[in-house]
Each structure stands twice: as C-alpha cells, then as structure tokens.
Amino acid sequence: MVTFGHFVLPLLLLGGAITVEVQRPRGVPLSKRQFYEEDKPFTCLDGSRTVAFDRVNDDYCDCPDGSDEPGTAACPNGNFHCTNAGFRPAFIPSSRVNDGICDCCDTTDEYNSGADCQNTCREMGRKEKEELQKLAEIAEEGFLLKKQLIQEAKHGLEEKKTKLEEFQKNKKDLEANVETLRTVKETAEQPEREAKERHLKAWEEQKAAIRLEKDRARMVEVLVELDDDADGFVSVAELQSHSELDPDSDGSFTEAEAQGLLRGMDKVDAVVFETVWNNIKEKYVSESNADIPPPGETPPEETPDIVSENDSENYPDEDIPEEEEDDDDEDDDEDDDMDDGDYKAPPTTRTDEKKKDDDDEGPMPPYDQETQALIDAAQKARDEFNEAEKALREVEDQIRNLEKEISFDFGPSSEFAYLYSQCYELTTSEYVYRLCPFNKVSQKPKFGGSETSLGTWGKWAGPEDNIHSVMKYENGMGCWQGPSRSTTVKLTCGKETVVTSTSEPSRCEYLMEFTSPAICQEPARFDSGHPDHEEL
Amino acid sequence: MLAGMGPVLLVWLAVCLGGTWAVDKGNFKTCEQSAFCKRQRAIKPGESPYRALLETMELTNTRLTLQLINDNNKVRLLLELYRLQGNITRVKINELKPLKPRYEVPDVLIREPPTEPLSLLSQDENGVVLSLGPESQRVIVSARPFRLDIVEGRDVLMSLNSRGLLGFEHLRMRKDTQADPETDNKEGADPANQDENTKEEEEKVEDGMWEETFKSHTDSKPNGPSAVSLDFSLPGVEHVYGIPEHADTLKLKTTDSGDPYRLYNLDVFQYELYNPMALYGAVPVMLAHNAQRTTGIFWLNAAETWVDISSNTAGKTVFGKMLDYVQGSSETPQTDVRWISESGIIDVFLMLGPTPREVFSQYASLTGTQAFPPLASLGYHQCRWNYNDQEDVRSVDAGFDEHDIPYDFIWLDIEHTDGKRYFTWDPHKFASPKEMLQGLMDKKRKMVAIVDPHIKIDTNYKIHNEISSRGFYVKNKDGGDYEGWCWPGSAGYPDFTRPDMRAWWASQFAYDQYEGAMENLYTWNDMNEPSVFNGPEVTMHKDALHGAWEHRDVHNLYGIYVHMATAQGLIERSGGVERPFVLTRAFFAGSQRYGAVWTGDNAAEWDHLKISIPMCLSLSLVGISFCGADVGGFFKSPSTELLVRWYQTGAYQPFFRAHAHLDTPRREPWLFGPENTALIREAVRQRYTFLPYWYQLFYLAYHTGEPVMRPLWVEYPQDPATFALDDEFLLGRDLLVHPVTEEGARGVTAYLPGKDEVWFDIHTFQKHNGGQNLYIPVTMSSIPVFQRGGSIIPRKLRVRRSSACMEDDPYTLYVALNNQRTAEGELYIDDGHTFNYEKKEFIHRRFSFSNNVLSSVNLEPGAQFTTKSWVERIIILGASNPSTITLRTADGVNQLEFDFDASMSVLTIRKPGMNAGADWSVSLQ
C-alpha cells in the first residue's frame, strides 16, 4: 500500500529572501487552493462527484477529471503543479510524477521515485533572466535599428517615387524623341531604298547581259562540237550522237525526234541553231565531260543523326533520380558544349555552291558615291533611332522595377524593404545556402557542383496575427517522386541580418532561420523582478 | 542524400524507381525461368520410378534405413526414418553415394532431435509397417513404387510420394561438352541418336542443368543439376497455412493455375500483394488443419524452394494394397503439396499434432522458441529514413513529450553512418552519439541504429580491412572476394555461415569496438537477404562460394546468420547479462530465437494495412511471434485516416514501429492536427496499458512456442467459420482484435468465436455472445477489441512516457466472467531487460476467479523476485452487486470499497493495494 502525506511542509528557502510556502495539497497551484479545504469533502473540479478529503492525493483516481490526485500519478489526465521557486511555475502531466525523471526544477515531482534530482530553479531562473535580458537588449537595439530601417525605407520609398516620377517624365521625353527620330529615319530611308533599288536593277541587267554572252559563247562551242563534219551545219545524225537530248528520254533518240529538235530541218546553220540551242541547252552534255557524272550534290554530313543522338542523351529530368544531380549537371554541361558545336558548324556545301554561282557573274559592284551617301545617312538615322528606343526601353524597365518595388509588401512600415535585392549566405559542412529575400533561395555544394534552387519568392506565410514572421519560397528544383523544393524562412529578431541555420526537416522542404532587426517588436519594459512569480 | 552511390546503383534505381509503384515482376524469376523448378514441375503425377529395396532395410532402436532405387537411372538413394520425441517423424533422403557431399542445413535445429524407439509391426515383400508409438500411429513403407503413409487408426494423416513426384537429381560428372559446343549442337539436332546413346544411368542434358542465364546474369552451375522434390498428400485437409514470407492471405491458395509459392529471400522493391512471389524471408514450414487435427511439415532446406499446392483434383493415385481398407471416397477433401528445392537433401519433419498447440510445441522442440524480448521493445518505436541529425532526434524526442505520447525507441536508418560504413557515425550530423544516447537514457528511452551486412570496400574502413585480412568475405566463383553494389557502392559480404566470422562480428558490438555505442543502443539488420543491387534478382550470385558450399546451398540462411551474430554481439557486450533486441528483414526457420522481424518495405495503401494481419499471422504460425509492419507504410505518404487506422492496428500487433521512406513528408504523430494527434496518442496509450499482457504472452511464447498473435482457428480448431479469417486475430487466447482497415468505414463485422463464449468490448464493457458475426459501428476513434469472458488481464493504466517509467506502477486487473462466472489469467513480472529470468528471478502468478473468490497463486514457487508494483484496482466484467468485499493477505483481512455499475454489470474494486507478487484472495459476498 502506498500512501503519502497531503501537505507540503512549510519550507524555509535560503538565499536571502525567506519564502513561506502556503499549505495546500501536493501539486495544487495557489490559484486552486480554495477548492482543497482540509476536513471538508472534496468535490471534483468538474463537479462530477464528491469524495472524502482523505481521498485527495491518496494515489487512487476517483475524479474523472483527475482533480482528486493533483500530486500523484494516479489519474491519466491529471496535472501536477510545480512551484519552481526561483524560476517559473509549471504544470506537468501527472504521468511525470515519480517516473524517475526530473521534470520540475524544484524536484517536487520526484518525491518518491528515488531519482536523484537537484533543485536547479535558481540557476534556471538566473539563466532565463540573463537570456531574457539578452533578448530584451537585442530587441531594444533591434527595434532601434528597425526604426531606422523604417525611416530609411520611407526615404527610400520617397526617393523611389521621385525617381519614378522623373523616369516617367523622362519616358515622355524619350518617347517624343523616339517619334522624332523615327520620322527622320523613315525620311532618310526612302531615298536610300530607291537608290539601292536602282543600283540593284542596274546590276541585274548587267548580270543578264553577262549570262547571255556566256550562253552565246557556249552555243558556239557546242555548235562546233556537234558539227562533227565541220561543215558549219548541225545535222540530224550529228544531233543523234547526243542521246541525252532524246526529248522523251525513252532510250531511243530517233531521227524524227532529232529532226523535231532541228525545227523539221535535216540540218541547221549557226543562225537557226540559236533557236535550237534554247531547247537543248539544259540537257546537253559536253563531249569532253560525257564520262564524268554531273556534279551532283554530295549529301551533307548526317548532322541530323548526331543531333538526335544528342537529344536522346538529354533524357528528361523526371527519369533521373534526383540523387544523380551532380552527374546530371555534368550531362547538361556536355550537352551545352555540343550545342555550341552545332552553332559553330561550318556552312553547308549548298552555301558554297551559291557562292560559286555568284562568282560566275562576279560580286556586285560597290555602290556609287551618291547611293553610299544616302545609305550612310539612313544608317545614321537608324542608329540614332535605335539608340533612342533603347534608352526608352531602359527607362520603361526601370519604371517597371520601381513600380514593382514600390507596390511590394515589405511589412506594415516597409521595414523589410532593405532586404530587397540583397543576398545572405550560410555555409554548412556540405553546402553554401543563399537567401535572396523576395527573390530566391538556393543551395550550392561547398566543394563544387551546380546550384540547386530551393524555391523562388512565394509569399509571406506567418500566422494571421504575424504574417510577416515567415517567408515562403516555392517551386524550386523538382524532387524525385515528390514535390518541387520549397523553403520556409523563419524570421527572428536580431541586431544583424543573418541566416543562422538551415535544415531539411522533410525531404525537399527546407527550413531557414533568419534574423533581422526588421522583425523586432518594441520591447516591453523589462522588469528585473519576478512579476510572474505567484508564490510571493 | 544518396549522393555517392555509384553508377550501377543509379541505373538500378532508375530501372526500379522510374516506373510505376508496382514491383517489376520481370526482375524476379517465375518457376518457368528457374531451370530446376521447371524441370521438376514438368514431372507429372503418376507411378514413381522409385522402389524401396526392402532387403537393404536396417532397423535400430532409433532409426530405420532403407535404400531406394530409381528404376530409370539405377541411382540409389538412402532413406532414413526417425521417430522423434513429441510425435514427430523425420524423413531424410540423400544419395546413397553422392559424388560429393550434399548440403545439410546446420545451426537451425537447436539440437540433434532426441529420438524414440521405432518398432516393426509387420513386413512382407510389399512393404513394412512400423509403429510410431502408443497412439496407434503407424508408418507404412510401400516398396513398389516407394511411398510412405502415416496412419492413425483408420485415418491416413499424410502420404509421401503418393503422387510419385519424388525427384532427386543425383550429382554427376559433366557430360555435356562445354569445351566443344559443336557436339552439343549435333546432339541437339539428332535427338533420336541421342536417345540411343543414353544409357540407363545417363540423364538427358537439359537447358539450365550446367548453366543458366537470367537477364544479364549467368549462373555457372559447376555442380550441375542437384534438385530435390517430394509430394505430400493430406487427406481430409482443405486448409493449409504458413510457408512465409508471402504477401498473401492466411489460408494458402492452390497454385495449379500459376506459379508455386516461392521461398527465396529477396529484396523485392515495392512488392505486390496477393501473389506467391518470394519476399525477404523464408520459413519452410506448412501447417495443415481440419476440424479433427492439425499437422505440420517442416522441409529443412535452405536452397531456393518452390511449393505447389493443389486440392482434391490430384492425389487419386492407386493406394497400396495394405491401404485397401482405407476409404478412398472421392468425397473426401484432400490437399496435395509438393516441395521443390534446388540443392541439398530431403530432410523433412512431419509434425503430427494433433492439436495446434502441440504442433507449435513440436516445431519449437526442433527450432526453438521466440527470444524473450526486453519489455521496452514491446512499446512503441519511432523510425524514419532518416532522422537527420542529433538535433532532429532531440526535437522528435521532445515532440513526444510535448504531445504526451509514449515511446520507447527512436531509430536511425543508414544515413546516420559515415558514408554507409556501419558501426560508424556521420561526423557532422551525429558528432556526439553518446551525448545523444545519454539524452535518451535520461528519459529512460532507447535507440536503434542500423547495421547492414554489406561492407563498404574502403581501405580506410577498419571493418572492411579486418574482414578482408581475415579472409572472411564470401568468395566469387573464381575464388576472389565477392563484390556487389549496395548502399555504400562497391561492397563485400562477410561470410556469416562461418562461426569464426560470426564470433568476430559479434565482438564488434563491444563498447570498446563500436564507438559511440551505449547500453541503450540496439541494432537493426536490414538488406540481409542479402540484397545485392547489381546481382541476379537483386541478390547474390548462386555460384558465389561460402567455403566448400555454393551460395545456392545456403542462400536462405544468410539472413538468420546475420541476425544470430548480431544478437550474440549485443549479448556479449553486456557480459551475457542483457537481453538483445535486433530487428531483421531476412529470416529462416529458427530466426525467432534472435529477435524481431518486420514485413519489409510496404506501402502507404489500405491493402498493405490489411495484408499486415495475414503476413504476421503466417509468421506467428511458424514460430516467429515478434512481427510487425511499418506503421503508416514505408513507400508513399498515407492519408491521415490511413495513418490513424494503421496506428490503431499496429498498437495491437507485436512489433509496433512507424517507419517512412526518405522521400516522404514527415509524419510524426503530431503533424496532422490536434484531433488526429489525440487519436494516435490514444492508440499508443492503449498499447502501453496492455504491456503487462504483451509481456506475459511473450514469456509464454518463449516458454512454450505458442504464438502471441494467433489466427482464430488456433483457439477454435473445430469451428470451420474461423479457418480462413484473416481480418481479425487473437492476442493470446483472451483478446480478439478486429482493426478497422477499410477507408471511410462506418462499421466492421467481427466474428466472435465460441458458441459458449462471451466477449466484452474493452472500451464499453458491453457483453456479446460468441458464435456470431457482430456488426460494430465505428468512428475514427474506434479500435474494436474484445476480452474473452473467462479471462483475467492485468493492465497498467498509468501510461507514462516510456515503458521503463511504468516499471513500478500498479496494476488494474480486468476480470471478465464467462457464463460459468469463472475466469483465469496470469501475470509475469521480471526486471524487464536481463537474462536473470533464466535464474528464476521473476514472478509468475495465476489469477483465478470462481465461486466469487478471486485469488492469486504462485505458478513458480521456485522463482524469486520482488516488485514495487501493487494492485490498484480490480474491474470485474459481467459481475453482480456484492454486499461486501473482503481482501485476505498474509497481513490480515480487510474490507474493500467498491463501485457497481448495474447498467453494464461492472464491479470496480477500489484500491485493494496488495503487492503484485503476493498471495491474496478477494471474496465477494
């Protein structure tokens, strides 16, 4: 049978002050003392039953709410109150009373377990006080910094607004400038175009003349070649010797067919041959070339195949277990190299031929001075226009960025604005973590390897009453068979803006601790006493 | 996290992980793809070519030997027949003169089984009849063809080779010409010619006899064909059980239309349910049951084994002349079983019951009983791949306290090591393991760290260097150290079949060897099939060498040897004082002696929750009581409802551990909102209140071999309604559990067995009659559990943060009265963690209630132990209202206060206060 005394003996605590414990059953907080009156029947705090007072703390659970056993482990749902003089009082579950583990710093929970507990309340109180003091100091300094930040942000915002206005004004000027220059450009381009067309037309005509000359020269050559008997005429028979000229290409070049080509005549002289030549020149094969196959196009290197091989190596990411990251990245690099190779591939044969064709007629002669002057003028106008347009675009970008920044939620007083476009790093044993607030979070292996995105700015995600205490970064690099990486950034008050820790509590869900003065709250007046100590 | 795994593993992962969630069946052999299974299965029932040569019979006091001859090839076999103590018959068949010795499984039997005399009853030219003892049991050996029948009275209990499927591939010199493939081709091209050439003693060379290729792996088979096979007919039997491990129903199915059940320890990635594929462990023991009798067949062979089951259609072979008097009515149901193993010998133990309990004790007499676990290991285990670092461990531990959920063990998976080098700690994440372990110890909690058997090949790794220099690694077929890919990349596999290797391994657990270990650190053996990522079927090549033996011969033993050596290590580190706790994934017959098993890498699916019941029941039937499934499911992420239901189910299964894959979101019990936290807390707390009962059941399992978790038919063997039930189960005799395993369930229908029984809902104390299907409406908080009328269950209702914190706590006795107003129960108490119970340092009480007197008597007068625990409350269910209650102890007599709830007939006796180890009686007047 296990029974215990119901009362804590009045204790004299040493160490300066003399504290008197108020008599009440073990485990009962002062606030509930009035419900436990000695020698009066005890009514369970839920009112469910009334038992004799000696049932209180008799190590048997009588009340469904556990209130008859505040000082024992008898009730499954009971609570034990530790006074913890020198520190903070606390409730612990009844199941921790006499379980051999010291839970209350005043050791009162282990009164019958044989556990060797030391009273650590004063030590803990001191530590907590120090801690609180430190935190208060940090909060105080942090809050000062925060005020500064708010001020800066305010100035920054005003500056930005001013700048924005400037930019907007600037933009208008630039727009006007662009329009002016556009007119100038278009005005300059009209004569340029005309002059260039003239020049080109002249060149085309010149080319046609050259071609005609060449054709006639060849015709004469052919005529001589065909005129086997050198009588100045091309006969049916002579023509028949060139089987490639067979009009229906059926393998037999008949007399009639040959005659047909010769306009029904048996033979033609040089003058008539000129009309015959137009019909046969496409097919005609010079006798000196007859045995050599016509210069066909050798098929270009089978680049498409190589390309497709590259493609097949570049398998989709989702097939690769993400553990392979490093290797994967290497593959990517290789692919990039190959792509580069493709860009640098020599021009195809076709281009070569074209060049050769052009060479036949020679290069286009340079523009004459007048045309060149027009072109130069137009080019200048174009350049100026482009320059102006570029300037306008830049200003528009700046306006967009400014507008975005101005409209961003940087906290109730824009105190987080200073984090914008900053980055903070933390190096662990394996990785360098990088937090760029309102932008992205990433991780890079310390000893080489590529960066992995742990998420891009998502939203403020703190609890409703303190939404700016947590940042959420989402849609980072995908995880194998899982979601894409994301990072939760918890902000705590600190004098400095630092990433203090990172962890991955769940696969691909990262947690970052980040201190910043911007989250510091105005410190409550710190009192050096123990205002929350109810035992005094 | 897995960076550093080599390319082969990555390919393996890509292949295995890339696709769907189902197992890739193509990675594992079918019978058709396993040459010996295909060859043996091609033999159809018919007249056996084997003949018993009765003239060679020798009968000594303890055994009968007899030669068998195969009339086709004239190869002679030696049959040995033993009568073993406890109604077991052992039949061994080996080659009379094998070319070289064939493997006989060592270390599985706890001793050479003691024999009983056999006596000859009659003999003629057709056979002999031997008496198997007093029970009018006889064994009939028929000569032509050879068969064995075990009969009792007029009943045939079991027949061997009655379908003529005895197959014994004798060892032979290689006749096919590896060196000259042309000859081979010629032979193949002219089968007629080959037939002529084939002499009686020469068998046809078939594909796969001397070499076999599966996927990219070639098995060199230098010893050629060596399979053994035998059929067993079980007249009158319609229900067979056992041969774990398969993800299938409790009642085994016939295999005529598909593959046989396969026993070959394999690391099966994302296994599929309801099929006969092999899994991580193998226990070649089958139980056969009908309303009259339970028997068992233990096929002691560690090679790859396939088991075919058919029913009634087969088995109509001609019965011998001497069996003519036995009715061969076609109405009699019959189950036929055929065992096929790749090598070794036939060594089979016929356990003849006749009751389920006797079969358990017969099997226990051969392979031993469940290791008696430390009490704490029956508590709740919190595991995850992986707790990231010490801070993570600390905060999870604190989470349990914050949410007031008890737990005993927190587990560390492979990431805790320094680069998958077991016995080491990651220098950054687990820089001060002793500090961490001390933190747990301060809360009377414990830790398990994983130690797998594959060893990273790394000359800077002490364990590797020592194994390597001692020549302890398994060798490849060419004699070099066998290398495979596993978690660490290239790894060696210690040869655990060697006693010197096991002794060395055990020594590595000593505190001065295993740096960072403390007495509250225990061990988990995973991947011990063995798992070889780049090996055939994700395991070791069969032609790898363990000394003189091929891996083929010993494969299914690798896991048990790892488990054995590890458990031994934990025992030795404490100087033999402390009980070990080791969890294993691979197992074999006898693994129960070394610790706990779990059902491997399951998935967060409702069907996986359901299958956990038959999977653990099948293991329980073959001696392995300490079984559990990963709560929540390993792969994938469970819905909150599934997770809660899994906790509720796991709380009533022997090994209660939550576990989760690396890639799943966190799922500690408090992450699903206060309501679900409360549901999980309640389930875990129920577990802790029943710890005294669990502990007593494990003591019983250790003591007698009776399973902790039982199919209903074990206790109601004559009730056919129970024979196939596997959605509910019994714990011991007295708790019936029907967990909710259906999504969105509004109710469950539980079968309450026993026409004369009554069952009490443990939550409401409502009484129900047995022999009925009871519909129970359920909510999310419901765990339908019933206490049998007639039982007394001791519980501890003061649930604390770990089992050790509850050591001295008082008991509440739940006395559930049956229709005769009697009840019985037991209480076992010891120190909870040492082997001192072997020195009789324990309390074992029997409680009984009859004639309105509840009394506690000592069951072990020779035992001595003292406890601080007392009896704080007695709750009598189905009671009537007494006027007075009197307690009598050695200290005297006093009246007790009580409370009677007339609506539920529940009598609560307040604070009797006697010590739990004392003699006492409480009388109701």
Q: Can you tell me about this structure?
A:
The complex is a heterodimer of chains A (536) and B (925). Chain A is an alpha+beta fold and 536 residues long. Chain A contains eight helices and 14 strands. Among the domains of chain A are: 19-118, no CATH class; 124-286, no CATH class; 417-516, Distorted Sandwich (Cation-dependent Mannose-6-phosphate Receptor, Chain A). In chain A, a hairpin with a 3-residue loop joins strand 7 and strand 8 (431-436). Mean pLDDT of chain A is 80; it is low at 1-19, 292-358 and 528-536. Chain B folds into three domains: 33-170 and 210-367, glycosyl hydrolase (family 31) (Immunoglobulin-like, Sandwich), CATH 2.60.40.1760; 375-451 and 498-534 and 549-711, TIM Barrel, CATH 3.20.20; 810-924, Sandwich (Immunoglobulin-like), CATH 2.60.40. Helices cover 18% and strands 28% of the residues of chain B. Chain B is globular, with a radius of gyration of 29 Å. The termini of chain B are far apart. At the A-B interface, helix 6 and strand 13 of A face helix 1 of B.
The side-by-side strand order for the widest beta sheet of chain A comes to 7-8-9-10-11-12-14-13
Average pLDDT metric of chain B? 93
Percent helix range of chain A: 25-40%
Name the CATH architecture of the largest domain in chain B. Answer: Sandwich
What Rg of chain B do the Cα atoms give? 29 Å
**Count of extended strands of chain A:** 14
End-to-end distance of chain B: 68 Å
CATH class of the largest domain in chain B: Mainly Beta
- Taken in chain order, the helices and strands of chain A follow as EEEEHEHHEHHHHHEEEEEEEE
Query: What general outline of chain B do the C-alpha atoms trace?
Result: globular
Q: Please state roughly what percent of the residues of chain B sit in beta strands, choosing from under 5%, 5-15%, 15-25%, 25-35%, 35-45% or over 45%.
A: 25-35%
Contiguous uncertain segments of 5+ residues of chain B: 1-20, 179-201, 313-325
Q: CATH-wise, what's the superfamily of the largest domain in chain B?
A: glycosyl hydrolase (family 31)
List the chains of the largest interface with their residue counts.
A-B, 36 and 42 residues
- Any idea what the radius of gyration of chain A is? 48 Å
Structural domain count of chain B: 3
- Helix vs. strand class of chain B: alpha+beta
The total count of helices of chain A amounts to: 8
Which quaternary structure do these chains form? heterodimer
Domain MRH (chain A): 421-522
Coiled coil (chain A): 150-220, 371-405
Organism (chain A): Fundulus heteroclitus (Killifish)
InterPro entries (chain A): EF_Hand_1_Ca_BS (IPR018247), Gtb1-like (IPR039794), Man6P_isomerase_rcpt-bd_dom_sf (IPR009011), MRH_dom (IPR044865), PRKCSH (IPR036607), PRKCSH_N (IPR028146)
